[in-house]
Amino acid sequence: MVKIQKKIVGYEVVSGKKGEEATRALESVPPPRLPEIQPVLRRPEDLEGTTYKIKTPLSEHALYVTINDVVVNGKHRPFEIFINSKNMDNFAWIVALTRVLSAVFRHGGDATFLVEEMRSVFDPRGGYFKPGGKYMPSLVAEIGECIERHLIKIGMLNPVEVSEELAAKRQAVLEKGGLGNSQCPKCGQMAVARLEGCDTCLECGYSKCG
After folding, report:
1. Do 142 and 180 have their domain in common?
2. Distance CA 30, CA 39 (A)
3. Same-domain pairing of 128 and 99
4. CA distance 136 to 189
5. What would you report as the CA-atom Rg of the chain, rounded to the nearest whole angstrom?
6. What pTM did the predictor assign?
7. pLDDT tens digit string along 131-162?
8. Which of 115, 134, 153 is the last residue of a domain?
9. By the 8 A CB rule, do 54 and 82 touch?
10. Which of 60, 75, 156, 201 is the most buried (most CB within 10 A)?
11. Partner residues linked to 158 by β-bridges
């Protein structure tokens, strides 16, 4: 180490063999690459779609969820979604939700993950029961269920099959004259019943013993 005793009044860059080697090494390092994503699909002039009606006790006005499909390699896939209602209370977040969902659809990747993500959304004010007794933890969860129904319809998802084990548990609870009366921490349904010392969800099969 050389100790400088005088005040520095200027400097000069001296190139040498080591400097040239360092420069070449830096030039050989490729720049970082951004992760590649699927190209955005172009919208055809005409699209086929299906409209689903959602009626909840949260509002006197129903929601109408329309999902339009595009045909890629002979197969239908969702391209865009619209949600309409006379109730304007949730207008802002509904518009935001439809734009985000449509953007995901148009990027062409696997959009089936949206179903699970949306169905796991819980409203802090509490959910509601649909006609027929099925519990919905939030309005977003029911919109997710509409998307699930549509993906099953066009063949992107397979219908959920009930295992023999779960069917037997449902039958055992029915024979005892009971029903699920508490909320499942996994699927959000009010379908958890006590069976053989275990809390068992009659909807998704979740079980916790003790």
Report:
1. no
2. 24
3. yes
4. 7
5. 28
6. 0.69
7. 766 788 899 999 999 999 999 999 999 887 77
8. 153
9. no
10. 201
11. none
